[in-house]
User: Which sequence fits this backbone?
C-alpha cells in the first residue's frame, strides 16, 4: 500500500517511541508489529526521531546481521557468542519503508548480510531487502532467516523458533561457519 509505514519494535522502549511516532504521523496508514509473549528490554537508546531510520547497535566487520522486531534481541545474543564478538548488528526499525542508506552502508563494508525476521520470508522484510539489493551493484552474500511458507506445528513461541532454527544455537553455528570460512 503506498505511503504505508510498518514498524517492528525491538523492545518496550522502542514500542513506546513507535506509538508516539504513529500518533503524530499523518501521511498514510501505519502498523506496528509486536511479538507474542514477553519482550526483554535491550537497554539501547531509542533514536530521538524515528523518521525511517535504522539503527546500528554494534559495529563489526565481515558479517552484518540486520534484524527487525523481536529478532534484534536474538541478533545481539548471537553477537556475544564466542568467535562472533566482531559482527555488526543493526535494527531495521522500519519494515517499510526500507532504510536504503543503512543497507548501502552494510553492503559496501561487509561480505555477508544476515537478515532475521519473525515473519514470512516470502513477501516480508527479507524479500524487500533482497529486491532492493538486486537493483544495485553490491557484491554481498545475503542469507535470510524467517518463517518459511508452510504450516508450522503448534508449540510455545520458543519451541517453534527453535524448530525453525531461529535461535542462538543454530544461528551462531551458521554465522560462525561463515565468519571463519
Assistant:
Amino acid at each position: 500500500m503506498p505511503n504505508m509505514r510498518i514498524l517492528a519494535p525491538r523492545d518496550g522502549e522502542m514500542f513506546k517511541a513507535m506509538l508516539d511516532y504513529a500518533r503524530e504521523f499523518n501521511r498514510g496508514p501505519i502498523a506496528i508489529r509486536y511479538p507474542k509473549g514477553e519482550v526483554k528490554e535491550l537497554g539501547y537508546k531509542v533514536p530521538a526521531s524515528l523518521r525511517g531510520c535504522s539503527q546500528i547497535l554494534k559495529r563489526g566487520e565481515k558479517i552484518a546481521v540486520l534484524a527487525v522486531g523481536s529478532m534484534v534481541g536474538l541478533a545481539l545474543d548471537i553477537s556475544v557468542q564466542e568467535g562472533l564478538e566482531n559482527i555488526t548488528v543493526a535494527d531495521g526499525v522500519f519494515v517499510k519503508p526500507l532504510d536504503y542508506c543503512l543497507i548501502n552502508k552494510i553492503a559496501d563494508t561487509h561480505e555477508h548480510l544476515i537478515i532475521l525476521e519473525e515473519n514470512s520470508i516470502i513477501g516480508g522484510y527479507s524479500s524487500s531487502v533482497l529486491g532492493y539489493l538486486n537493483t544495485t551493484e553490491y557484491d554481498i552474500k545475503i542469507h535470510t532467516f524467517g518463517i518459511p511458507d508452510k504450516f508450522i506445528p503448534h508449540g510455545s513461541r520458543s519451541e517453534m523458533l527453535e524448530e525453525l532454527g531461529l535461535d542462538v544455537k543454530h544461528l551462531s553455528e551458521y554465522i560462525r561457519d561463515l565468519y571463519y570460512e
Q: What stands out?
A: The chain has a mean pLDDT of 93. The chain has six helices and eight strands. The radius of gyration is 16 Å. The beta strands are 5-7, 30-32, 55-58, 62-67, 88-91, 94-96, 110-120, 141-147.
